[in-house]
From TrEMBL:
<protein>
    <submittedName>
        <fullName>Peptide-binding protein</fullName>
    </submittedName>
</protein>
Length: 182
């Protein structure tokens, strides 16, 4: 299950290396600052092994020994999600319990959305619902490896968005835990 972490135990002036494979000898493909926060780990090799993160246009691995979990950094506590897809291109900046912005070929729309709800009897399924001016929005999130199909980035949440109203549609893609203030 994806979660947000902070870099911990890395000396000031040093960096946490991002490796191409979960191996300290693997090619270095990026780095994280010693004070980095909001680092999304999308998969793990083992509880105390390596965590997969995205850097640039690809995915890499960091040692979990240098990451500390952020309070409220996992679903259902995380309230902001960045969801997106291709064919057609769409994005949903979801602020559960606030305003969420959907952008797709039909235009942009704001929805008042409720909190993230865990799936009944499931620890890997979550939902967010909302509405505005005769339209409805339902976001179904599932913990599963997901690719945007345009880069080598790998995400840990798949998404299905159902929009109801005069132009009903279903959109599929990925979500990322979002730490950015809006």
């Amino acid at each position: 299950m994806p979660a947000l972490f902070s870099v911990a135990g890395v000396a000031p002036g040093d960096v946490l290396n991002i490796r191409a494979e979960p191996d300290a000898a693997a090619e270095k493909i990026g780095e994280l600052a010693p004070d980095a926060v909001g680092v999304e780990v999308t998969a793990r090799t083992a509880p105390d092994g390596w965590g997969r993160v995205n850097t640039g246009e690809r995915a890499g691995w960091v040692s979990l020994g240098f990451l500390a979990p952020q309070d409220g950094g996992a679903l259902p506590e995380v309230s902001r999600l960045s969801c997106f897809g291709t064919e057609p291109f769409w994005s949903l900046d979801a602020d559960a319990g606030g305003l969420s912005n959907l952008s797709d070929p039909e235009g942009e729309a704001l929805f008042l959305t409720g909190p993230v709800q865990p799936g009944a009897g499931r620890s890997d399924v979550f939902g967010v619902t909302g509405g505005a001016a005769g339209r409805t929005l339902a976001l179904a999130i599932r913990a599963a490896e997901c690719s945007d199909g345009m880069s080598d980035r790998l995400y840990g949440l798949s998404a299905t968005v159902l929009v109801g109203g005069t132009m009903p549609r279903t959109l599929a893609g990925c979500c990322s835990l979002d730490t950015a203030e809006r």
